[in-house]
Amino acid sequence: MSYMRRVSVVSIICCTMRQSFMGNVFINYETQEWKNKELIIILNKDDMDIEIWKQYAKQYWNVSVYQLPEITTLGECLNYGIEKAKYAFIAKFDDDDYYGPNYLGQGMQAFKKKDISIVVKRSVYMYFEKNKLLTVHVPGEENLFITGGVKGATLLFRKKIYEKVMFPYLNRGEDTFFIKACLRYNFKIYSTTKANYVCVRRAEPGHHTWNVEDEVLMKNCTVVCKTDDYRACGVDHEQRTSKKIAYLTFDDGPNQATSQILDILATYKAVGTFFMLEPNVQIFPKIAQRMVNEGHAIGLHGVSHKVNIFYASKESVMREITTCRRTLKSITRMNTFLVRAPYGSNLYMKPTYLKAVNYAGYRLWDWNVDSLDWKFRDRRLLKQIIKDVLRLEKKAINPVILMHDYPETAKYLPKIISFLEKRGYLLEKIDYSLKPVLLNRLSMKHKLRLRIR
């Protein structure tokens, strides 16, 4: 763990009047990979029940909820949050934007440069919900010192600034006045890259306090792509799409074979993503903890792995996922929102179930390469992977490889890794910012394969 990560703790402050975005607030906080943090939520609406949200916050580590009368300005709310903050760095989060897992990590890294007091983003990804357009707003203003024009939702600063500069008692433009005051005191402001954050322009009229028409904002934007999933582009779009990346994923663990798999991954300095069953996590807690310690991604695979139990109803799906998440968090201190549904999402996961899973902030992942190790416990699983990877390679599609925590899979894993490395693939783990790979719901080929099991 780096020096910065050990000693630098961030107090995240989020002021909100919108109950419907509270889930987004908690998800943005929980998915931050920067572990040294706290979340301070300021409810700024009289009809929001603070007791409900205090109870809800108990599910999460180091979260405090306060409430101020709705006549209180946003600037006053922010000042109140700073006064409640326990730590040396302050991050201002908006309730309706997207903050990628490495958002805080990227910002805190910038403080290694001398004399930086405030870290922000001048160039940002901006998503226009109405048109489903991902753009870059004010492109080219990255990795440089600036004197204004920042996105207020990306403010990250040293708390000691508050000794000289407070937020003005305003509901709009409070961040602009704050920046101007900081410049008068010669505090240096540094703009990082656009990565790890997306400003979301909602389709509903009157939603934003920044009262600017989308058409006006678009004049300072360059279009990246049209997409339904802006979160997947909350990382550097150009870097992510230019790499050959393979994702090794393992289901149904942990078990004894998982230890062999982890040993092999360590030997090759590779990482994987493990979708685990809750009972197995309870039986092998040390192996689950080892995954986290060695830098692998962990995900949820439910409890029963039985179709008639897991998919009995929307409530049963959510119960299985939530139970698995809470057990995994209690053992590893990691609160993952990555999910793989038993037998994939295309066979038994009804649209209403899928909607509930997405609404709760989970990221459902399938695969595009099936090793068939559940069927073949011999060299045929290796051949299957090679065949499908080469097929996808012709289409420039990065493989997400489905495997299981089996001894036979561990036996062929060195050859799988060697093949991928020779083909020029980087082996990476799945993270929350990626666009999930999902099976085609009409794919009879996959349905027949899954029914064989």
Automatic annotation (TrEMBL):
GO terms for biological process: carbohydrate metabolic process. This is Glycosyltransferase. The lineage of its organism: Bacteria, Bacillati, Bacillota, Bacilli, Bacillales. Keywords: Transferase. InterPro entries: Glyco_hydro/deAcase_b/a-brl, Glyco_trans_2-like, NODB_dom, Nucleotide-diphossugar_trans, Polysacc_deacetylase_ArnD. The keyword Transferase applies. It comes from the Bacteria. Residues 244-428 form the NodB homology domain. GO terms for molecular function: hydrolase activity, acting on carbon-nitrogen (but not peptide) bonds; transferase activity.
